[in-house]
């Protein structure tokens, strides 16, 4: 019986693919020799979670109930004076927490300022709600908005249709929006089907705080959705997204 020789260092090069369709990366985004690698399920879903606002349910409770594995902590960066300064601020957060992805939400009073709009538009932006869709089917309108973003990415980066879809995402709203639109769980299922068909990189929503029925009248304070649903039902739909 012979022995197996250790492969040379030059043999350990090239593309590495995760096992059984899983994603593969290194712990803590480190590059040092000997850094451990990790496998995780491919899932582009990470609902926003704003701790300290709206009495959100425990992240562990949401994970166990819906199958979602990631969250997008909500925070605001609105005091930067240029697109480059804003990008640098985001990069600090990415580096500090070894983030795998970020969602950039452009809203609130600060975004009503035209200068701020241009500063953030120099990066990229879209969210398919609060755009005058009250009384209309938000699943259909979301698909229309996604096609518009796909076209914009094609023109900006020279992507094919397929590549543009794979570099973009949808960040929807749970329930009643500030513009009196109504996003239902049926709309989420429509959006999920679209995202799956086009292999969107991200599918997320605002927010885990809202993903539960209201005990009474809709208070519009991000503590509940304002529509008929069970606890965590919206998140459970998007958690099925596999990219």
Q: Overview of this structure, please?
A:
This protein is of the alpha/beta class and 243 residues long. The chain folds into two domains: 15-42, no CATH class; 45-74 and 126-238, Glycosidases (TIM Barrel), CATH 3.20.20.80. The protein has helices at 59-66, 83-97, 114-121, 138-157, 161-166, 185-198, 233-238, and strands spanning 23-26, 37-40, 48-49, 72-73, 169-173, 175-176, 182-183, 202-206. The strands form four sheets. The chain has a two-stranded antiparallel sheet with strand order 1-2. Strands 3-4 form a two-stranded parallel sheet. A two-stranded parallel sheet has the order 5-8. It is globular, with a radius of gyration of 20 Å.
Keywords, separated by commas or semicolons:
243 residues, two-stranded antiparallel sheet, alpha/beta
Write the layout of secondary structure elements.
Elements lengths: L22 E4 L10 E4 L7 E2 L9 H8 L5 E2 L9 H15 L16 H8 L16 H20 L3 H6 L2 E5 L1 E2 L5 E2 L1 H14 L3 E5 L26 H6 L5
Parallel strand pairs: 3-4, 5-8
Antiparallel strand pairs: 1-2, 6-7
Helix pairs in contact: 4-6
Give the structural class.
alpha/beta
Mean pLDDT: 77
What is the N-to-C succession of helices and strands? EEEHEHHHHEEEHEH
Report strand order across the widest sheet.
1-2
Shape: globular
Entry summary:
The chain has 243 residues and is an alpha/beta fold. The chain is 32% helix and 11% strand.
């Amino acid at each position: 019986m012979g022995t197996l020789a250790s492969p040379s260092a030059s043999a350990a090069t090239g593309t590495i693919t995760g096992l059984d369709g899983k994603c593969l990366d290194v712990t803590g985004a480190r590059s040092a020799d000997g850094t451990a690698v990790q496998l995780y399920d491919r899932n582009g879903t990470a609902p926003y979670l704003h701790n300290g606002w709206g009495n959100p349910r425990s992240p562990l409770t949401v994970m166990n109930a819906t199958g979602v594995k990631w969250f997008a902590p909500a925070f605001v960066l609105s005091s930067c004076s240029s697109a480059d300064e804003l990008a640098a601020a985001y990069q600090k957060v990415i580096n500090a927490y070894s983030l795998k992805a970020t969602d950039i939400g452009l809203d609130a009073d600060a975004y009503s300022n035209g200068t701020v709009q241009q500063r953030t538009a120099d990066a990229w932006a879209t969210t398919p709600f609060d755009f005058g869709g009250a009384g209309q089917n938000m699943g259909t309108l979301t698909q229309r908005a996604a096609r518009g973003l796909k076209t914009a990415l094609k023109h900006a980066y020279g992507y094919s249709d397929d590549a543009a879809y794979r570099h973009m995402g949808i960040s929807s709203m749970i329930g009643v929006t500030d513009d009196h639109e109504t996003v239902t769980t049926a709309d989420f299922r429509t959006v999920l089907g679209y995202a799956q068909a086009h292999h969107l990189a991200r599918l997320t929503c605002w927010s885990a705080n809202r993903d539960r029925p209201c005990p009474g009248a809709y208070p519009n304070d991000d503590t509940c959705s304002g529509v008929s649903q069970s606890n965590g039902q919206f998140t459970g739909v998007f958690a099925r997204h596999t990219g």
